[in-house]
Amino acid sequence: MISQTAVTALSEKLGRKNVLSEKEDLLTLGYDATPGLSALPDIAVYPTRLEELLFALQVARDEGLAVVPRGSGTGLSGGSVPHKGGMVLCLGRMNRILEIDEANLTATVEPGVITLDLFDAVMAKGLFYPPDPGSQKVSTLGGNVMENAGGLRGLKYGVTRDYVMALQCVLPDGSVIDTGGKNVKDVAGYAFKDLLVGSEGTLGVISQITVRLIPPPRSKKTLLAYFDTMPKAGEAVTRIIAARIIPSTLEIMDRTTMICVEEHAGIGLPLEMAALLLIEVDGHPAAVEEEATAVRTVLQQAGAAEIKLAADADEAASLAAARRTALSALARKSPTTILEDATVPRSKLADTFAEIERLAEKYRLVVGTFGHAGDGNLHPTVLCDERDRGEMERTHAFYEELYEKVLAWGGTVSGEHGIGLAKKAFLARQIGPAGIAVMRRIKNSFDPRGMLNPGKIIMEE
Amino acid sequence: MNNKKSNFPADDAPSYESVLQCMRCGFCLPTCPTFALTGRERSSPRGRVALARAVHEGRLDFTEALKDESFFCLDCRACATACPSGVKAGEVMEICRGQARSAFPGGHLSATLRRFVLERMLPDPARLEGSMLPARLYQRLGIQWLVRHSHLLKLGPDWLEKAEGMLPKLEMPLRPRLPELTPARGRKRGRVAFFLGCVMSLLYPEVSRQTVRVLAHQGFDVITPRATRCCGAPHLAEGDRQTARRLARHNLELFLAEEVDAIVTDCAGCGAILKEYDELLAETVPAGRRETFRARVRDISEFLAEAGLRTDGLGEVRASVTYHEPCHLCHAQGISKQPRELLRAIPGVELREMNESSWCCGSAATWGLKFTDASRQILKRKLDNVRATGADYLVTANPGCQLQLAWGVKQAGLPQQVRHLMELLGRATPE
């Protein structure tokens, strides 16, 4: 519980509209996009600058409140769910793009900037910020950094971590550290920055972010390939990679996903097909031409039923946009959609698809599968009803068995969504007791009182 | 969650399925004008649905704050267009307004006035037309000029001044003047019924006169049943679902009695509701009749695009035009291409796209009067986009938008003339 004095102090310092304590507000700030998880915080605050952020943290310390940082709440592992109550620290109103440095090819922003807004702003200056999570229209940079978000261009361009050059971070004791900088090379000391990226708000609160920009690719080609089985499509992906071609995007959708996406977007997908690959190659026009031809050849050899080239930039954009809606579109079919973030070495893709199909049948579940096939990062999604206990148990068993295989193949329990609340047990299995123990020591050294986003990532003892 | 205890105060609550459907991905957030204004999650589609869900699950009472949110929602349906999961947050809020009427009946005077308007005035076209008489006299006698220039209105509430400023120059209502049958011209292509909306008849009679003329010129016999009543949209917006159903049933039976290829309207708001009669009357009218009715309803631009516009004999309208998409056309009915196709088909017209053409103008029935300040902010964003086009005309296809935009353009001193799509097409159509 928070005291009335503290609420008053916050309201005075941050302004009334930036301090919310009505139940209706708290109810709507206690969730993210993870199914089944929501909680009721004690208070929500919206700092608009660093000084207010520090003040809010001070109040939380004095009141002994847990602090849960939050961007737009699009997370998919419960990272911003305040399951132990306390203060939700909403960073969406710290949303200024502070600088686009064309000499150093960097941009510096506050954590609440929307990902696509940054993309558009740098694009207007002829620069490119490659990370592009599916939720880029909504998600914030701060959230991207904290979850180390991936996206559709991850295959060629990597994930958020690969573009973070510097972070300003507020520690729970109120100290502010600046880590990293605009230097292309920097090996001074421990890599705090890299530790903070993907720390899901458990180590510090990010108050400023500097990202690396690159020149945009000069040209791009988008291909679509359809297959009559999922493992065949998986095999095609493996072969493209083995042929030393790195497309910028290599996405997969199964039929269930295609049906849902088609229902929403109406872009004319052939629903009799079992799988679709969406492939983009970009770069120098001559290289793009050559790679597109090579991809086409590999696809043919891998038994694609049909290969199509997007007619123009508009068609390519609408395909990518449709792909971004896959998860939400799957939610049309059932009251509850539970997605996973299983990632495997790319040589294991076809096996993984076969395994998903086998398990779906075994546990009598409807599963829609889509994802960043080129990264080996898949999102098998169970379409279920949270009111049906039996189905939920089978869903649980499905993922248990799937992850057992994924880990045995050297895969990981999260490619881009983070661990949060949803996957703590799986992480423990992946990295083992020694790994968890080190993580716990790191957490304690940053946040000895366990105030920041408690209970996330690491299983409690 | 199986043993949920719904806290909705009355029957006719949003279904549990309809709120469970939201998986909270947040794709709706950047499309919501009220969320853009406040940045407050509970004023977002996702937040509003979450509140309705909490009420359903007994975690929240139907509170005054939820009532406020249900009326603060513009019901523009932009979130529904954006939602891949098919959640209809606007509709959920519309239904919550009905719940709000049970939970918070409101002060005696406003409740009585509201009931008088919704239950007595709007359902009765003759009474409605009669009531406009003072407003017309007021304009004719020059009192309007006096009032507008004397700052008398500054003394009254904000909305009154705005409402007064919005009134276009009034003519005689169209309903009694429109022939029950307007015969097709040239080669006959079919027979349609025209659904004349109340606001169209009262405030924009010339628009609908043009619509009927265009339809006839395009080769359609047009019948206009004089017994048409209000479509029910204002009632739904105010949470009076009962009267809305009564009106819907009347109109459905009235139009089904006619042998026509289509039921056409030039009011995007009416069109959207007519298409929703299907759901509104789900429990009171047999499915077959509902489906037949639904299959016939067309917005005028949709109808002409399907029929194929006959352009021979159309005159030239030399003008640059930008198009504002009414929410009830683009979001509620999914009609976006067709009005543009028609505009491009008018000889001489140059279409200049504005940014965010489908972003609400802030009118939203009585919303613009209830939330005058918020409405002004939304309108400003729209007008900035209009200004940037430098077009001669600002065209739209819904009377609510037209009132708001005409007022806004005048207030902002913009050069654009605001017109309904059918006025432009009417100008190109020879008498």
Automatic annotation (TrEMBL), chain A:
InterPro entries: FAD-bd_oxidored_4_C, FAD-bd_PCMH, FAD-bd_PCMH-like_sf, FAD-bd_PCMH_sub1, FAD-bd_PCMH_sub2, FAD-linked_Oxase-like_C, FAD-linked_OxidoTrans_Type4, Oxid_FAD_bind_N. Pfam families: FAD-oxidase_C, FAD_binding_4. Residues 37-216 form the FAD-binding PCMH-type domain. Its cofactor is FAD. GO terms for molecular function: FAD binding; oxidoreductase activity. Keywords: FAD, Flavoprotein, Oxidoreductase. The keyword Flavoprotein applies. Gene3D superfamilies: 3.30.465.10, 3.30.70.2190, 3.30.70.2740, Uridine Diphospho-n-acetylenolpyruvylglucosamine Reductase, domain 2, Vanillyl-alcohol Oxidase, Chain A, domain 4. Transmembrane segments: none annotated. Signal peptide: none annotated. Belongs to the FAD-binding oxidoreductase/transferase type 4 family. PANTHER family: GLYCOLATE OXIDASE SUBUNIT GLCD. This is Glycolate oxidase. It comes from Geothermobacter ehrlichii. The lineage of its organism: Bacteria, Pseudomonadati, Thermodesulfobacteriota, Desulfuromonadia, Desulfuromonadales.
TrEMBL record, chain B:
It is an enzyme of class 1 (oxidoreductase). Its cofactor is [4Fe-4S] cluster. Residues 12-42, 63-93 form the 4Fe-4S ferredoxin-type domain. Binds 2 [4Fe-4S] clusters. Its EC number is 1.1.99.14. Keywords: 4Fe-4S, Electron transport, Iron, Iron-sulfur, Metal-binding, Repeat, Transport. It catalyses: (R)-lactate + A = pyruvate + AH2; glycolate + A = glyoxylate + AH2. It comes from the Bacteria. InterPro entries: 4Fe4S_Fe-S-bd (IPR017896), 4Fe4S_Fe_S_CS (IPR017900), Cys_rich_dom (IPR004017), Glc_ox_4Fe-4S (IPR012257), Helical_ferredxn (IPR009051). PROSITE patterns: 4FE4S_FER_1 (PS00198), 4FE4S_FER_2 (PS51379). The keyword Repeat applies. Component of a complex that catalyzes the oxidation of glycolate to glyoxylate. This is Glycolate oxidase iron-sulfur subunit.
